[in-house]
Write a structure and sequence with these properties.
Order of helices and strands: HHHHEEHHHHHEHHE
Oligomer: single chain
Strand content: 5-15%
Number of helices: 11
Largest sheet: 2 strands, antiparallel
Structural class: alpha+beta
Helix content: 55-70%
Strand order of the largest sheet: 1-2
Number of strands: 4
Length: 176
């Protein structure tokens, strides 16, 4: 069904950007840190995992219980090496050109500058991400902490606003 919907060019052309207007308006309405994290939480419930991912799954060290996890996510090109390794320079150029085209199509002014700003932001994130090899080290990726310690350590985000917007219940432990 999804494939057939994608092939329905008549419907797609009629809809144009109308299907994105609500999402774009939500993003445009971000004015401060609180509205930003609330928007990220809304996106986590519907469209993806910008900036980071949060999910519940079996605790890696005790499979008889479920645990709340938070992990890296949110790079447009997916793999951090695409942002950092010189051998991927052409991919970075192609990604910026793609972003510029998308931004132009949705009516964003200064599309080229905005695309370059996205690339710079994502590159900064990639510099702090773990590599695919590092992510395979389960012991290094298993960092349980109390909610209080988590909120204190990562205090640039209003976790209470995120939690309530997401509809996440109370928790006392999270694995980073």
């Amino acid at each position: 069904d999804l494939y057939k919907m994608g092939l329905d060019s008549v419907r797609l052309n009629e809809e144009g950007l109308s299907v994105l207007e609500s999402d774009l308006a939500t993003i445009e309405a971000v004015t401060d840190c609180k509205s930003f994290i609330e928007t990220v939480a809304k996106m986590h419930t519907s469209t993806g995992n910008p900036l980071f991912g949060m999910y519940v799954t079996s605790d890696l060290m005790n499979s008889s219980i479920n645990a709340l996890y938070i992990s890296q996510s949110g790079l447009g090109m997916g793999n951090r090496d695409y942002y950092l390794d010189e051998e991927h320079a052409s991919k970075r150029e192609g990604y910026v050109a793609y972003l510029e085209k998308v931004f132009t199509l949705v009516g964003i002014e200064n599309a080229k500058a905005e695309a370059e700003a996205v690339m710079a932001f994502e590159k900064t994130m990639a510099e702090r991400f773990r590599s695919n090899v590092e992510l395979r080290n389960i012991a290094a990726s298993y960092n349980p902490m109390s909610k209080a310690d988590f909120v204190a350590r990562y205090n640039n985000i209003d976790w209470e606003a995120y939690r309530t917007t997401l509809g996440l219940g109370e928790f006392d432990r999270i694995i980073v």
